[in-house]
Amino acid sequence: MSTTELPASHAELMDGVYRWQRHIYDLTRKYYLLGRDRLIAGLDMPQSGTVLELGCGTGRNIVLAARRYPNARFFGLDISAEMLETANAAMAREGLAARVTLARGDATDFDAKALFGTARFDRVFVSYSLSMIPGWEKTVSAALAALAPGGSLHVVDFGQQEGLPRWFRALLRGWLWKFHVEPRASLRDVLGSESQRTGATFHFRTLYRGYAWLAVIRSRSNPIF
């Protein structure tokens, strides 16, 4: 899907949500987007590897990952032009523009080769984006299709808060809904099903009594899709 074919309603919604929020996004989200740094630490990048983030937002995760893995090349995709403006500024400020390529696109349907000049990546990660993407299941399939043989997909997002008090779950859900965020109850099942379909290995864990879910899917060296 080209930039001109982006689903207008969702792209416009995200631009509207983040037109002003992007300026304070990283400052406020660090208190409740838990598990992102653990995901980055677990990427375990190969030497001179390639990494794609779907729903890269302000570029916060890419900056941290690029510092941790100085020999890797990074790519970021987001549907919001507003967020990408902030992300590009962050890359320039951090001196990472030569190692990072950002593009506007739909994470459920994108042509990595056309956008980035490469079709496969050693690592793909999605951090707190599936809970905001309509048709998010397609993003999982697209992410796995973009993996190089032996690569891995890393996902962190809101869990079902299964170990937390009911009042807390209700309060959190109400707050998240204001930002068009919906924790995906079927996330574990979808990731597990996609792992089976592709013959990949699947590792899943809950964090902070189910506040967040963290998953890793490692692809076969000889993929079947």
TrEMBL record:
Its EC number is 2.1.1.-. The lineage of its organism: Bacteria, Pseudomonadati, Pseudomonadota, Alphaproteobacteria, Hyphomicrobiales. Residues 51-151 form the Methyltransferase domain. One of its GO terms (molecular function) is methyltransferase activity. It is an enzyme of class 2 (transferase). This is Class I SAM-dependent methyltransferase. It comes from the Bacteria. It comes from Mesorhizobium captivum. Pfam families: Methyltransf_25.
